[in-house]
Amino acid sequence: MSKALAGKVALVTGGSRGLGAATVRQLAAQGADIAFTYVSSAEQAQGVVDEVQALGAKAVAFQVDHADTAQAAVLIDEVVAAYGGLDILVNNAAISVEQGRKIDDPDADVAALDRMHAVNYLGVIAVIRAAAKVLRDNGRIITISSGLGSRVGVPGLADYSATKSGIERYTLGAARDLGPRGITANVVEAGLMESGMAPDPEVLKILLSGLSIQRVGHPDEIAAAITFLAGPTASYVTGAVLDAHGGYNA
C-alpha cells in the first residue's frame, strides 16, 4: 500500500479524541509520524499513541492548554526537537460552551466564553505563528472550522461562530503570506459528528433540519478531507474553505 505521507511529520492539536484522533490515525496510516496535543487525559492520549505505533508510525503526545498562548512556541520547539522538523499542522483543538445562550442573556458565563475565545481563536493563531517559522517548504496548514464559521443559522451561537470565522480568515491570510514557500493553508468546515462536542439537543434538532444530508457525520468522513489537504495531490489547493458538514451552507 502506498504511503503518500512517508517521511512527513504532522502535528494535530486536540488529537486524543473525536475528529482529532481520527485525523491522527488517517495521517499515520499514510505514513506520517505524529505529534498531537491533549489537555487532560494522559491515558486516552497514550491509547492513541499505541494505535499509531501499531500502524508502523511514530507518535508523541504533548499536554497543552491552548488557552495559554505562551505554550504554543514551546510546543513547536518540542515537536522539532522530537522529530527534526514539521511538515503538516492541523489546528483541531477547540471547545464549545454556553450553547443556545443569546448575547443578551444575563446569566451567560462570560468567563467561560472568554476561555472559548482563547482556545478557539487566540490559541490557533499562536500555534500557526509559531509553526510558520519552522514549517518546511511545501508544508501544509489545515484549520478545522465549522459551518458556523460562515453561517450562524440559529440563535445562541454568536461567540462560537465568531471564533470559527476568525480562524478561517487568519488561515486564508496565512495562505497568502506563506505561498511563496510552497506552503498551503486551507480550512475544513466540519459538521456535526457522532462524537465530540455535541450541541444542546434543541440546537442539534434545528441544525440537523438545515442540512442537505440530515444526519450527523462520522469523524472519519471529515478526517478524510483533512488527509486529502495534507497530501501531495492537494499541492495546488490553498486559501480554500472545504465544506464537510452535510450541506449546511447549500
Protein topology:
Blueprint: E1 9-12, H1 18-29, E2 33-38, H2 42-54, E3 59-63, H3 70-83, E4 86-91, H4 110-132, E5 135-146, H5 158-178, E6 184-190, H6 201-209, H7 219-230, E7 241-244
Parallel strand pairs: 1-2, 1-4, 2-3, 4-5, 5-6, 6-7
Please provide a written account of the structure.
- This protein is an alpha/beta fold and 250 residues long.
- It has a single domain, classed as 3-Layer(aba) Sandwich (Rossmann fold), CATH 3.40.50.
- The chain has seven helices and seven strands.
- The chain has helices at residues 18-29, 42-54, 70-83, 110-132, 158-178, 201-209, 219-230, and strands spanning 9-12, 33-38, 59-63, 86-91, 135-146, 184-190, 241-244.
- Strands 3-2-1-4-5-6-7 form a seven-stranded parallel β-sheet, with helices on both faces.
- Helix 5 links the parallel strand 5 (135-146) and strand 6 (184-190).
- Helix 3 packs across helix 4.
- The radius of gyration is 17 Å and the shape is globular.
- The N and C termini lie far apart (36 Å).
- 44% of the residues are buried.
- The mean pLDDT is 94.
